[in-house]
């Protein structure tokens, strides 16, 4: 059974700080996705990483796929209150999700 | 575009009652799925469908039934509701099953008393 473990589970930071969220597994994934969910809404796709070692940037967000395709990270530079939300990684043929990282950015 | 539409948004049931959560998408997606989201548990896959007439079980299928008679609709049925089924349910669709972007509905919050 494929499992995705995310860390940390909760993160509370001040505006302007940097942070990294991790998504790890003992299984190899052909691709991993990152979603962001705001309260009362469904998750929305941020990025899909496919190639081992791949790095993708989305404004202040940087996503990396591990060389062995077993892990991924999300780095946010200079976090803003608008970044607040639940960040979820997902992967696998049945599209399983990690338990998520709840990020709170205060001004 | 409406995208993925779920109804109802809120529902309260008594233990033992049955109900159907409706899900419709207007993007002609072949793949549709149902997830439940509980605090600290992320999204767990209940059932999924890769096309009309084809359904399969996910991680937590017990107590739920699905059918896919058309490409657009994928209803989720609770046959005899239990308090453990209190959750937020999300329907999602995608062009394909493997690595495609999942488009989610806004969720249906179900409380079973």
Descriptive notes:
The complex is a heterodimer of chains A (107) and B (113). With 107 residues, chain A is mainly β. Chain A is built from no helices and eleven strands. In chain A, the strands form two sheets. In chain A, strands 2, 4, 5, 9, 10 and 11 form a six-stranded mixed β-sheet that branches. Chain A has a five-stranded antiparallel β-sheet with strand order 1-3-8-7-6, with no helix packed on it. Chain B is an all-beta fold. Chain B contains no helices and eleven strands. In chain B, strand 4 (31-38) and strand 5 form a beta hairpin. The model of chain B has no long low-confidence stretch (mean pLDDT 94). At the A-B interface, strand 5 and strand 10 of A face strand 5 of B.
Compact overview of the structure:
The complex is a heterodimer of chains A (107) and B (113). Chain A is built from no helices and eleven strands.
Question: What's the SSE blueprint?
Answer:
The complex is a heterodimer of chains A (107) and B (113).
Chain A: E1 5-7, E2 10-14, E3 19-24, E4 32-37, E5 44-49, E6 55-58, E7 61-65, E8 71-76, E9 85-91, E10 96-97, E11 101-106
Parallel strand pairs in A: 2-11
Antiparallel strand pairs in A: 1-3, 3-8, 4-5, 4-9, 6-7, 7-8, 9-10, 9-11
Chain B: E1 4-7, E2 10-13, E3 19-25, E4 31-38, E5 42-51, E6 54-57, E7 64-66, E8 76-78, E9 87-94, E10 103-104, E11 108-112
Parallel strand pairs in B: 2-11
Antiparallel strand pairs in B: 1-3, 3-8, 4-5, 4-9, 5-6, 7-8, 9-10, 9-11
